[in-house]
């Protein structure tokens, strides 16, 4: 009789079935988030940083301008004589009309 008492609770009883669990979306792990971040940074690098860097490298002025040679004409002086200044003023007035 003692054996039956131990076995009885182990039997399956007619229980109501549980409703099926809904599949939940799993959260991204740390590795998944790192991969997503790397993908975003790669896209931004390709679209934003690389073209501006290439433009900077291709079109920047030389570091040291070439030395002036004897064949180069001297640059005009910014100090205008009164006659030159009056001529420049008349030309500017004519163009602004």
Outline the secondary-structure elements.
Layout (H helix, E strand, L loop, with lengths): L1 H6 L22 H30 L22 H15 L1
Could you explain how this protein is built, in words?
By secondary structure, the chain is mainly α. The chain has 3 helices and no strands. It has helices spanning 2-7, 30-59, 82-96. The chain is elongated.
Biggest beta-sheet profile: none
Q: What does the radius of gyration come to?
A: 42 Å
Please give the number of β-strands.
0
Structural class: mainly alpha
**Helix content, binned percent:** 40-55%
Can you give keywords for this protein?
97 residues; mainly alpha; 3 helices
Brief characterization of the structure:
The protein is mostly helical and 97 residues long. It has helices at 2-7, 30-59, 82-96.
